[in-house]
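Example S7 (structure tokens).
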């Protein structure tokens, strides 16, 4: 009989070899599957013993020229369905694939269901029912162009689910992939040697390795779909299970797993206990970035390395891979190393020359398994070098060190806790670096189109590494973001949901900042001196803050003694944040108002009088929450026309924007009876003096 065994991409050859060893005749390898011939007892043996298959399906029939509903129905209608189940049993149809006529998989599945039901109705005058939860039989249809293959699910639930893993970490690896990695690592060639996983997570790799070394049948305690088929012979199957169970061995194994997360280590211990391996594998806390020797004899290091969500961020990953490479060369001479990662650029940070590479899929993620041999040549590679991708990156490291020294006196004098340290000072290293207490935010600007993406990526890696080392900041406190031109509502969209905040002070005011969840942190550092101006000139004033963001200017106005404050922004998130900033500073007054509104529309229809207005609009906006697109160069006079209606006779408008090359229309301003003084230089603090184009500021009053 013909069967097909499914697996993940990259495991097909291993599965094929395994099927041959188990007595099947392999017919064909395709992406993610292997077709084979076998008798039913051999197929059952495969379900019991396969490490690499995820599902086994038995072929019922295959037919070409299936073009439409009618041909599909007729093909299915005349199969001998009574050989697979009876009218009193339940079934479910799983269909995939389309062609010009059969465009909807759900519809095609219904056609198959109707054909099966009609078959039993004609034969027994009784119809089986569909059960979507636990059917007696699962019928599988696969359409490719005009060829349909009909299968019966022979194995049932995924063979990859061994049953021991009820607890897992953030980045779990499927058991069949873990088995493939163990096989490709070469450890099974000599199971007496140590096997060490420095990032073991919930322990899947080591548990799978131990089970393979002990020759255990992963499906020995499972129930399979074939047990419900009329052709199933229980006596022969029980004899097979007995034979398989007796093949298990109990070799002496030396398996060690470390992980930085105490909770995850607890999961690993629980999983190994459920797998019956509690006394076989040693799990302990350990940091892969600070490797130490784990055995006197050389063995194999194997790990599914963190590559994203499992670790906090880019800086932590870069630090981990760099230090892991150094630790391997220092403490694991003569060992073989097999490391899985989704990011080859991170693997390059190990500074190891790979011996072999295998490509896999971990779920939807493309991954590579790199094998290394830590021979004398690898180990003797100089760790005295910087380890940077480009030696020229040292210039960046020297610059941020120099900048920090240059700002030292000013930072101390003004008690500044949040400031800009670097802003594309060296064009090739096109980032901005902001410091918030003991944490750092790196903004990567979009590289020019002529810059190779790989070059830009490697430079960023160097920037991240050097920023942490030069400033003595721990990797988990280096946050990396991409600064791009924001469109529409993008500026209001969160990047993550870590909800981690800290409080920084500025000229006596406290502000909550969030370095992770949004592109901006909640405090525009370049407006620091503008906010101080507001604080120093707010006494007994009626203050209006438009496009208020998180209300920092309003806080300064309140501290400066403003008698009333109106804070306007169209984002509820930011207005709530503004009110948190007020509460943080113990500022409460019935005349402190927060209004959620489109600032342009609000300003156009505003009434009342204000003595001090802060207006810091976006350079451009076509947000869906604004009625019309806004361009600050084109529309600033319109803004001033509306502002004039609410600016008191002795009032002042502090106008600012971030458009490079902005030019105020003085003639139009004069026609309105207003005058403007450019105070940009006075609003640029020492940390922003390197970039004169960061913003421009104007004081506008009646002429």
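Recovered sequence:
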């Amino acid at each position: 009989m013909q069967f097909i065994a499914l697996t993940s991409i990259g495991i097909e050859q291993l599965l094929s070899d395994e099927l041959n060893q188990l007595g099947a005749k392999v017919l064909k390898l395709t992406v993610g599957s292997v077709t084979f011939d076998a008798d039913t007892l051999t197929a059952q043996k495969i379900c019991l013993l396969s490490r690499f298959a995820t599902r086994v399906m038995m072929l019922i029939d295959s037919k070409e020229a299936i073009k439409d509903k009618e041909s599909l129905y007729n093909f299915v209608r005349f199969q001998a369905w009574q050989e697979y189940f009876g009218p009193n049993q339940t079934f479910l149809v799983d269909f995939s694939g389309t062609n010009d006529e059969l465009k909807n998989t759900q519809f095609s599945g219904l056609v198959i269901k109707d054909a099966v039901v009609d078959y039993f109705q004609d034969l027994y005058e009784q119809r089986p029912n569909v059960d979507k939860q636990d059917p007696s039989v699962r019928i599988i249809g696969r359409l490719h162009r005009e060829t349909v293959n009909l299968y019966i699910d022979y194995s049932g639930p995924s063979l990859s689910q061994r049953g021991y893993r009820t607890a897992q970490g953030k980045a779990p690896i499927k058991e069949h992939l873990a088995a493939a990695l163990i096989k490709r690592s070469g450890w099974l060639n000599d199971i007496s040697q140590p096997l060490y996983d420095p990032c073991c997570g919930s322990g899947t790799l080591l548990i799978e390795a131990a089970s393979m070394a002990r020759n255990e049948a992963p499906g020995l305690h499972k129930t399979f779909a074939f047990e419900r088929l009329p052709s199933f012979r229980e006596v022969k199957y029980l004899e097979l299970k007995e034979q398989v169970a007796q093949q298990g061995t109990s070799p002496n194994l030396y398996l060690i797993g470390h992980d930085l997360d105490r909770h995850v280590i607890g999961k690993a211990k629980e999983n190994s206990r459920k797998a019956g391996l509690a006394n076989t594998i040693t799990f302990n806390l350990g940091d892969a970035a600070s490797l130490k020797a784990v055995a006197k004899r050389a063995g194999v290091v194997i790990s599914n390395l963190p590559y994203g969500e499992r670790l906090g961020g880019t800086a932590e990953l870069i630090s981990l891979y760099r230090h892991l490479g150094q630790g391997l060369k220092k403490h694991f001479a003569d060992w073989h190393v097999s490391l899985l990662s989704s990011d080859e650029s991170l693997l390059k940070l190990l500074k190891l020359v790979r011996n072999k590479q295998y490509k896999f899929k971990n779920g939807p993620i493309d991954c590579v398994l790199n094998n290394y041999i830590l021979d004398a040549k690898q180990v003797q590679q100089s760790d005295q070098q910087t380890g940077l991708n480009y030696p020229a990156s040292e210039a960046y490291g020297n610059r941020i060190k120099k900048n920090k020294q240059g700002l030292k006196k000013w930072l101390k004098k003004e008690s500044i806790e949040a400031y800009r340290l670097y802003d594309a000072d060296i064009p090739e290293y096109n980032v901005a670096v902001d410091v918030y207490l003991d944490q750092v935010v790196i903004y990567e600007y979009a590289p020019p189109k002529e810059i190779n993406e790989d070059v830009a990526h490697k430079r960023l890696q160097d920037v991240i590494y050097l920023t942490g080392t030069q400033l003595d900041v721990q990797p988990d406190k280096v946050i990396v973001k991409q600064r791009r031109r924001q469109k529409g509502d993008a500026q209001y969209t969160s990047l993550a949901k870590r909800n981690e905040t800290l409080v920084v002070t500025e000229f006596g005011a406290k502000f909550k900042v969030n370095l992770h969840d949004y592109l901006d942190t909640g405090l525009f550092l370049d407006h620091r001196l503008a906010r101080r101006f507001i604080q120093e000139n707010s006494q007994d004033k009626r203050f209006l803050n438009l496009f208020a963001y998180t209300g920092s200017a309003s806080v300064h106005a309140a501290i400066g003694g403003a008698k009333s404050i109106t804070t306007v922004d169209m984002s509820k998130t930011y207005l709530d944040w503004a009110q948190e900033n007020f509460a943080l500073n113990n500022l409460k007054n019935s005349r402190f108002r927060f209004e959620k509104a489109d600032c342009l529309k609000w300003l156009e229809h505003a009434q009342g009088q204000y003595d001090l207005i802060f207006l810091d609009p976006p350079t451009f906006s076509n947000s869906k929450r604004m009625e019309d697109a806004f361009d600050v160069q084109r529309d600033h006079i319109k803004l001033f026309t509306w502002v004039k209606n609410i600016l008191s006779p002795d009032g002042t408008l502090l106008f600012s924007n971030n458009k490079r090359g902005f030019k105020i229309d003085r003639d139009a301003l004069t026609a309105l009876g207003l005058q403007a003084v450019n105070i940009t230089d006075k609003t640029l603090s020492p940390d922003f003096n390197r970039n004169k184009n960061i913003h421009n500021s104007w004081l506008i009053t009646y002429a």
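Notes on this example. The longest strand covers residues 647-657.
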